[in-house]
Amino acid sequence: MLPARFSLIGLLVFTGFVNGCQTEPEQTESEEETGEASSEITICPDQVVRGIDVSYYQGNINWEAVAGAGYQFAITRINHGDFMDPEFDDNWAGIKSVGMIRGAYQYFDPGGDVSWQAQVVIDKLGKIAPGDLPAVIDVESTDGLPPAQVAQAVGEWLALVEEGTGKKPIIYTGKYFWQDNVQTAEFNDHKLWHAQYPNACQPPAAPPPGCGSCANIADQWDDIFVWQYSSSGSVPGIAGNVDMNVFFGTYEELLAFASEGGYAAELVSIDVPATVLRGESFTARVTVRNTGSSPFDPSTSLGTTEPRDRESVFYDSTWPANNRPASVVSSVAPGAEHTFEFAMRAPAMAGTYQEHFGLVQEGLAWFGNQGGPPDDAIELIVQVVDSPSGPAAGAGGGQALGGGGVGGEDAEDLEGESCDCRGAGTSRGSDAYGAFGLLLLGAALRARRSSPKKAREPRPRG
User: Fold this and answer.
1) In this model, does residue 428 exceed pLDDT 90?
2) 110 with 142: CB under 8 angstroms?
3) Of 35, 71, 371, 385, which residue is the least packed, with the fewest Cβ within 10 Å?
4) Domain extent at residue 387
5) What does DSSP assign to residue 367?
6) How many angstroms separate the CA atoms of 365 and 362, rounded?
7) Does residue 305 sit in the same domain as residue 171?
8) Which of 258, 281, 303 is at the close of a domain?
9) Alpha-carbon distance 300 to 296, whole Å?
10) Which of 14, 118, 13, 109 shows the shortest CA–CA distance to 56?
11) pLDDT at position 98, please?
């Protein structure tokens, strides 16, 4: 990116360059100064989300360590001219595998074949999925062209890549480079990824806003999306220097932007009995609001989470599958609410159960990977108790947790007048237990004979 490459009389010096078999096109013009801006600083961040951008210069990256250090988005390079970044595929997959928001950029040569460069991006990214950032054009070279021709080439690339990927691309540039070498405000409807390295924000100083500096962007924009504020960061899981970035806003706002055109919902309410009987069938209702830009349809389902797609211990034969209690029946427009109403069958063993559900667009994506809700947001806690007609099944066994892979078998029918009153694990031949049971039975019969007209009380629900 801009501040990470330096040129002097046509010679590029790459810090950490180790691959002598592949070479990248040379930059022959002076790069923009990226220290303290001399004109008035205009935009100061309030809340930020930390992220990084990478290429093969960072080598093999441990993305779990990066995510564990609190970085929530990453943008990786696709290519520069005919030099295809050898780490792109691994980085693209690795970022997603740890739940970070991902994006990709191309170092753009305005003097090169614009259609070919755009097609490289389209072939790599395809139709960009909700949850991923739009493609980025890295504009920091003129190839000796005047501003009007640079602007024309940039415009052609933007149009082709937007059509090919389905998302409006982001522009990466610096204030002075753009003002001197591109000059146009024609593309200010594209998000700006701004490069500027204030001295106060260089490691080990705190990142913005903690370093006290603000972003001074090109005059053609009035807002900023991401600020690349340093090229000398140190990040767990990565050897050597790393480009450091902050998104201006909250994580929820970044995720919502990445998920435009995708699926999102927020939990409105959960209605489920707090206590049920062993083996009892009961009704649950989960109401959500469609906060995404795509309607729900019959492919929108409620599925088990924590972990995803496991068999539920509350499985009922009316479910579409043992990990799908319900699906949407008809279209639910953005902004509208929908209630999933479904039967649940209590397990045969008494205890306190936790069950988690999430929304999934079958064959496309889990909502937790796009606009939410997260996998642990829809949580049902149900206490399963014994029938009053007999002792506990599995008495003395402690809590049973529904998220742990316990089978979702139909329990025995406990609703009849008679039942096997032995709990799970009780022995068959205790004389004292049998005598005590006969005494109780006799007392119950006497009570019924003495009150023949008394209505039978409903079974208690706790």
Assistant:
1) no
2) yes
3) 35
4) 265-404
5) G
6) 7
7) no
8) 258
9) 6
10) 14
11) 94
Single out the residue in 404, 427, 445 at which a domain terminates: 404
Residue 437 pLDDT greater than 60, yes or no: no
Q: Flag whether pLDDT at 196 surpasses 80.
A: yes
What CA–CA distance (Å, rounded) separates 105 from 116? Answer: 15
| DSSP 8-state code for residue 266 | E
Residue 37 sits in a domain of what CATH number? Answer: 3.20.20.80
β-strand partners of 296: 332
Q: How far apart are CA 55 and CA 42, in angstroms?
A: 30
Q: How far is CA 351 from CA 67, 270, 307, in A?
A: 36, 20, 21
Distance CA(225)–CA(133), nearest Å, equals 12
Spatial neighbors of 95 by CB under 8 A, at least 6 apart, are: 63, 74, 76, 101, 102
Residue 267 near residue 275, CB atoms below 8 Å: no
Residue 189 appears among annotated catalytic residues: no
| Amino acid (1-letter code) at residue 307 | P
Q: Are residues 248 and 365 in the same domain?
A: no
Question: Is this structure's pTM higher than 0.85?
Answer: no
The residue to which tokens 């943008």 are assigned: 75
pLDDT range class, residue 394, cuts 50, 70, 90: very low
162-199 per-residue burial string, b: 16 or more CB within 10 A, e: under 16 = bebbbbebbbbbbbbbbbebbbeeebeebbbbbbbbbe
Question: Considering the domain boundaries, does residue 172 fall inside one?
Answer: yes
In this structure, how many other beta carbons lie within 10 angstroms of the beta carbon of residue 118?
25
User: Do 107 and 197 sit in the same domain of this protein?
Assistant: yes
Same domain flag for 116 and 153? yes
User: Quick check: 431 pLDDT over 50?
Assistant: no
Residue 7 pLDDT exceeds 60: no
- Alpha carbon 194 to chain centroid, angstroms: 25
- Do 384 and 359 meet the contact criterion of CB atoms below 8 Å apart? no
The catalytic position among 85, 138, 140, 316 is 140
pLDDT-derived band at 1, boundaries 50, 70, 90: low
Report whether 140 contacts 114 (CB < 8 A).
no
How far apart CA 293 and CA 326 sit, in angstroms, is 22
Q: Angle 147-165/114-125 helices, nearest 10 degrees?
A: 30
| Nearest by Cα to 54 from 16, 101, 11, 91 | 91
Determine whether 415 is an active site residue. no
Residue 271 shares a structural domain with residue 250: no
* HSE-up of residue 201 (Cα within 13 Å, Cβ side): 27
The angle at the Cα of 319, spanning 318 to 320, to the nearest 5 degrees, equals 120
Q: Which of 31, 32, 53, 138 is catalytic?
A: 53
Are 224 and 330 in the same domain? no
CA distance 135 to 171: 9
